[in-house]
Amino acid sequence: MSIRFQDHEVKSRLSHKRALKTFLGQKIQAHDPRIHSTDLQYIFCSDPFLLDLNQRFLQHDELTDIISFDLGDQPDKLSAEIYISIDRVKENAQSLGIPYEKELHRVLFHGLLHLLGYKDKSPEDKQRMRKAEDQWLKDYYNTLDHES
After folding, report:
1. Helices 123-147, 17-31: crossing angle, 10 deg rounding
2. pLDDT of residue 148 exceeding 70
């Protein structure tokens, strides 16, 4: 299993990377035990960089906090790149009045949930996605508390 985090012209300040990788791997296996191979790369970037990707690949001319590219073509392999705008995460955290790292984790989980089949277009799908994000946040922070 390969889960990597990369800063591209930004500083994500992501902590507890080893624990996060373990947690994400466990969530993948719990969701779909058929997945035997994971190649997941998170790339932290700026608004302009992600906007360019959004325009070129999705034909959307708007800022976003995350874009997930599913590169897999086999049901037993999860292969993807997830791009996250640190600018958006910081601004969203500030406007929501929550810590930056909590919002960063929510967005990390959101991207993986999309790859695992979650949608967020309809109100019902958004509610299901938010509930899963909240549960993963709770589970992840409980994991960190037990490591301390």
Report:
1. 130
2. no
